[in-house]
Amino acid sequence: MKIDIISPGTYTYGSLVLGGVLRERGHTVTVTTNLHSQGEATLMSLFSTMQLLDERIRDFVSAHENVYIGGPVGLCPEMVLGELDAKAVVTGEGEEIVADLVEKGPAGLPGVAYRENGMIMKNPSLSIQSLDHVLPIIPDDLKRQNVRGANVYIETHRGCLGSCTFCQVPRFFGRSIRSRSIENIVAEVREMKRQGVSRVAISGGTGSLFGYRNEINKEAFVQMLKSLSEILGKRNLSVPDMRVDMLDEAVLQAVRDYTIGWVFFGLESGSDAMLRAMRKAVTVKDNLRAVQLARSMGVKVGGSFIVGYPGETREDFEKTMRFAEEAMLDDVFVSIAEPIPKTPLAAQMIELSPEDLALNQEHRGEFRALKLSEAEARCFELMLHAQSCKPIPRAISNDQYDAYLNEARCQGRDIKRVIQLLQKYKEYVPA
Ligand code: SF4
Q1: How much is the pTM?
Q2: Under 8 Å CB-to-CB from 235, ≥6 apart: which residues?
């Protein structure tokens, strides 16, 4: 069968892996980032709620038969099938069922949802035990893709021990850790390198959970980085995301010696009250200690923050601003709290009155002339502030100012649209 896999805009790792699984089964598979298909079946990998609102994606799915949707959006299949005229949705991990799905259709298959006689049928998902898989499809233009500096993000393990309220990872992959074998990862990266893919990042909540068995398996983590670094060179390997309570000197030393030497911490807030509300299970002190430890080991630190979280007061936000000053991060990402279906945050946000969300409150402070919501203003202000708190502070250019302002406005606009969509499927959004 001729099958097209579409990963709109960016090649997701999952789309490449599913391509490899279908190819192994004897199908002729193309993986593309373009909304174009001439196959007998089309799989589409969607990772963001916003993609369900993309008119080009909606039109494409309406115009084609046999379109199957997979990826993190599949956690809320009622919403996907309500918005897209797709044949079925893969609701969890797809490797073991995707071939049967395109060959025989969804009826009776585990881990899929589909319409039958106007009703949505949902079959319970499977959790895959061994994550080792056949070589993924490596499209010719993957070597030119640039996602935060890497050609591709690969997966070394699934699951997260954390319970952060805003995050889909433990809901999609579970809270126990399943890891690939180093041999399987090495074979994949070697093949990528052979096909011209030079810069690889390791994805998945917390990189140091690779090989986890009741405790961090430092030997496995270090060995995995060392092996990949020997193939790619340390300047081409990164392991960005790390929980602040899942690392020590040995982990950071490996990051320094075998990768580009950066970590990104989900710091989220400088207020302990907010960290508790987000169920981060760490304190502001833990965050600061991790930043300082990484720096003392010669590792550069990026951090991400969430603003406009339900209940965040101006005082909480001021604490975050002060934390940014003290931490002096090398890079900062700021996000307005986004409700992702099946997370506790989404369940909370759709129950709140609109006026209780900072996204709907008019900002009356320093930036009132810009006509921002309070959430957008905090996002903008923290981005500006963090820039001036870097170890080597830089003056903000006009272009940068405009880019930050635009980013804050875009986030605000998109998240408002997401909330409206979630309201439409209110009964299906909670876990
Ligand atoms: S935010 Fe990070 S630490 Fe928290 S649950 Fe998600 S992946 Fe785990």
Answers
A1: 0.95
A2: 260
